[in-house]
Design a protein that fits this description.
The structure is a single chain. By secondary structure, the protein is mainly alpha-helical. The protein has helices spanning 22-27, 29-80. The radius of gyration is 25 Å and the shape is rod-shaped. It has one domain.
Length: 81
Amino acid sequence: MDEGHGLDNLNDRNIVIIKASLRNILRNPQHLTIYQDTIKTIHTVVTAAYLLAHYIFVNSMMTRMNLMRINISLLLSSQNA
């Protein structure tokens, strides 16, 4: 069974496209709900991406700092011997 590349499932979703200015969207209560849901989704994705990037950066820095400490310790111990 071929599962494909995942794009086949796009037709199964309910996609709503609203082409209007923000002022017009905010006037219609139905559009406002869709707008708020979209903003929540975008906020969740952006927050997750930020946290992932932050985690990778912090881990990278901690690894570099630990390697520097090890190198300094080895250097100092070889000079004392």
